C-alpha cells in the first residue's frame, strides 16, 4: 500500500515537472512578447481577468515575467496599465517592448478617450523606462497612433497589436492592425512616426503581427483566418516594407481559445515560439494562458510547423 502511494506521488511530481505549458499558471495571461536583455529573457504579456461566463475581454494591465533557464519564471507584477496614459481608457490589448540605446519602449494597444485628439476607438501608445522592469511612464503624453490616422477599415479597433523592429541600418518600423496590416517608420527617438502610414497586402492577415529578420530575410508572422479560430501564418520579404510573400500556416488552432498570438525569440542558441491558449482549468477565449514551444527553420529559411506541447521546452543552463 505504502509503495503504491509513494509511486503515485513520484508520478505526480514527474508529470507536474514535465508539464511546463502554460508557463504562467497563477494568473491568466495573453499576447506574449519576449525580448532578451543582458542574458535574461523578459516576457511582456497581457492579463485576462474576465469571469468564466464573460463574452468579452477584461484586461486591466500588462505584466512582465523573466527567466534565465526557460522553465523558472519570475513575475515582476503588473508594471503598466492603461491608467498610465492620461488619454487612454479600456482594456490592455497586445503590446511589445523593445530596447534602444539603453531605454525600453513598451508599445501598447488600448483605447482612446473621446477628447480633442480622438473620437475614441483603439489606439497605440508608448511607455518608456530605463530598465526592462520599469518604472514605465507615458513617453509622449498622447497616443502615437489614433483611430483617425487610418481610414481603410471602418471598425474602431483596427489600430491594435503593435510590433516594432529595428533593422541593421537602425531604421525602426512599427507594424500593427486588425483586419488589415499597416506600417510606418519610427524616428530614432522611437516616439514619433516618420513618413506616411502604409496599408500593406498580407494574405489572410487578421491581427497580432510579429516582425523580425533572420539571415537577411524579413519575417511577418501573424494571426490569420479569423473567421474560424485563429491560426498563425507567415510571410517573408527581402525588405522590411514588403511586398510580403505568403508562406503558409505554422500553427494550427490552439486548445480552447478563439485567438492566438505569436511572440518569437532566439535565446541561448534555440528559437522559441510563444503563444497563448485556453488550456488552464476554467480557461477559455477570455481567460487565456501563455505557452512556449520550440521553433525550427528549414535550410531555405522556411519555418516548420509548430508542435504544440504540454511539456513545453527543456531547461537551458543559467
Ligand atoms: O488580447 C486582446 C486581443 O486579442 C489582442 O490584441 C489580439 O491580438 C488578440 O490576442
TrEMBL record:
The entry's keywords: Carbohydrate metabolism, Glycosidase, Hydrolase, Polysaccharide degradation, Signal, Xylan degradation
GO biological process, one term: xylan catabolic process
InterPro entries on file: Glyco_hydro_43 (IPR006710), Glyco_hydro_beta-prop_sf (IPR023296), Glycosyl_Hydrlase_43_Enz (IPR052176)
Signal peptide span: 1-19
UniProt entry tagged with the keyword Hydrolase: yes
Domain of life according to the entry: Bacteria
Keyword Chloroplast among UniProt keywords: no
Gene3D superfamilies according to UniProt: Glycosyl hydrolase domain, family 43
CDD domains, sorted: GH43_Xsa43E-like
Active-site residues, record numbering mapped to chain: 31 (proton acceptor), 207 (proton donor)
Residues at the site labelled Important for catalytic activity, responsible for pKa modulation of the active site Glu and correct orientation of both the proton donor and substrate: 161
Any one GO MF annotation of this record: hydrolase activity, hydrolyzing O-glycosyl compounds
Family named by the database record: Belongs to the glycosyl hydrolase 43 family.
Identification of the protein by name: Glycosyl hydrolase family 43
Amino acid at each position: 500500500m505504502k509503495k503504491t502511494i509513494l509511486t503515485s506521488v513520484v508520478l505526480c511530481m514527474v508529470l507536474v515537472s514535465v508539464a511546463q505549458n502554460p508557463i504562467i499558471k497563477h494568473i491568466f495571461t495573453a499576447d506574449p512578447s519576449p525580448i532578451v536583455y543582458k542574458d535574461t529573457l523578459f516576457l511582456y504579456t497581457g492579463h485576462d481577468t474576465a469571469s468564466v461566463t464573460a463574452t468579452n475581454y477584461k484586461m486591466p494591465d500588462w505584466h512582465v515575467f523573466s527567466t534565465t533557464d526557460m522553465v523558472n519564471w519570475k513575475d515582476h507584477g503588473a508594471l503598466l496599465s492603461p491608467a498610465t496614459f492620461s488619454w487612454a481608457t479600456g482594456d490592455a490589448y497586445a503590446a511589445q517592448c523593445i530596447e534602444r540605446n539603453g531605454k525600453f519602449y513598451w508599445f501598447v494597444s488600448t483605447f482612446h478617450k473621446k477628447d480633442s485628439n480622438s473620437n475614441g476607438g483603439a489606439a497605440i501608445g508608448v511607455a518608456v523606462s530605463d530598465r526592462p522592469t520599469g518604472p514605465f511612464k507615458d513617453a509622449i503624453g498622447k497616443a502615437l497612433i489614433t483611430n483617425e490616422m487610418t481610414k481603410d477599415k471602418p471598425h474602431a479597433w483596427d489600430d491594435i497589436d503593435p510590433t516594432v523592429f529595428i533593422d541593421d541600418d537602425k531604421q525602426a518600423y512599427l507594424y500593427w492592425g486588425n483586419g488589415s496590416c499597416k506600417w510606418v517608420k519610427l524616428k530614432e527617438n522611437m516616439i514619433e512616426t516618420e513618413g506616411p502610414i502604409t496599408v500593406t497586402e498580407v494574405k489572410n492577415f487578421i491581427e497580432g503581427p510579429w516582425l523580425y529578420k533572420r539571415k537577411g530575410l524579413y519575417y511577418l508572422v501573424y494571426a490569420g483566418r479569423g473567421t474560424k479560430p485563429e491560426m498563425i501564418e507567415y510571410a517573408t520579404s527581402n525588405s522590411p516594407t514588403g511586398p510580403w510573400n505568403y508562406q503558409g500556416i505554422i500553427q494550427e488552432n490552439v486548445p480552447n481559445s478563439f485567438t492566438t498570438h505569436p511572440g518569437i525569440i532566439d535565446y541561448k542558441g534555440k528559437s522559441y515560439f510563444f503563444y497563448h491558449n485556453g488550456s488552464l482549468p476554467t480557461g477559455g477565449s477570455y481567460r487565456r494562458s501563455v505557452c512556449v514551444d520550440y521553433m525550427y527553420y528549414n535550410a531555405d529559411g522556411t519555418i516548420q510547423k509548430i508542435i504544440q506541447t504540454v511539456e513545453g521546452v527543456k531547461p537551458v543552463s543559467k
